[in-house]
Amino acid sequence: MDQLRRLFEELGFANVETFIASGNVIFDAKAKTVRSLEGKIEKHLEKALGYEVSTMVRSIEELAAIAEYQAFKKNELDAEGNTLFIGFLSAAPSSESAKKLLSLASEIDGLHLNQRELYWLYRRSNGESKFYGPLLEKTVGVKATLRNANTIARLVKKYCQ
Predict the structure, then answer these.
(1) What are the tens digits of pLDDT across the range 45-102?
(2) CATH number of the domain that 152 lies in?
(3) Closest Cα partner for 75 from 33, 28, 110, 38?
(4) Domain match, 49 and 94 both
(5) Residue ranges making up the domain that contains 113
(6) Quick one: which of 85, 122, 86 has its CA closest to 104?
């Protein structure tokens, strides 16, 4: 995580911090568009690390809205064995891709899309999921990364004051 922080500092970003060992980086930067900022980061990381790194940038305000969004009923979220994951997508999926993705929902995998985020309720008590990262990207047709909703809640609690 120290190396990751240094790579972001090399880009001239301010107040760079990493948050737990999951690739979350918090920083201040000026950019014309989010997409240009993501591209700048992706190019720098690929050059420094030697492999492609998908990058999804969200503001702290966006993270707060994502954390507050209620994609599933509270009793489902609180049920023993259930875990909520949030998939950050590089772009909103096409309607065709969204339909294809949502068709994968099952008694094990609850799926809900909201703009550039996928809410995945994994109901472990009902069995083993066949839904995972590569299938997500292939189905939705855009780059994606998953985070446990608890991680997002912790980020918001720490940085949204």
Answers:
(1) 999 999 999 999 999 999 999 999 999 999 999 999 999 999 999 999 999 999 999 9
(2) 3.30.70
(3) 110
(4) no
(5) 71-159
(6) 122
- Name residues whose C-beta falls within 8 Å of residue 114's C-beta, 6 or more positions apart in sequence: 69, 71
Alpha-carbon span 85 to 135, nearest angstrom: 15
Does residue 21 sit in the same domain as residue 87? no
Instruction: Give the bridge partners for 112, in sequence order.
Output: 119
As given in the structure block, the two tokens for residue 69 are 């969004």
Residues 6 or more apart in contact with residue 8 via CB below 8 angstroms: 16, 25, 27, 41
Q: In the chain, how many domains are there?
A: 2
- Cα-Cα-Cα-Cα dihedral sign, residues 123, 124, 130, 136: positive
Q: Residues 34, 80: one domain?
A: no
Q: Does residue 42 lie within any of the structural domains?
A: yes
Please give the Cα distance from 161 to 157 (Å, whole number). 7
Ramachandran quadrant class, 115 (left: phi over 0; alpha: psi -120 to 50; beta: rest): left
Sorted by sequence, the CB contacts under 8 Å of residue 98 that are 6+ apart come out as: 113, 140
For 18-32, write each residue's pLDDT tens digit.
998 878 999 999 988
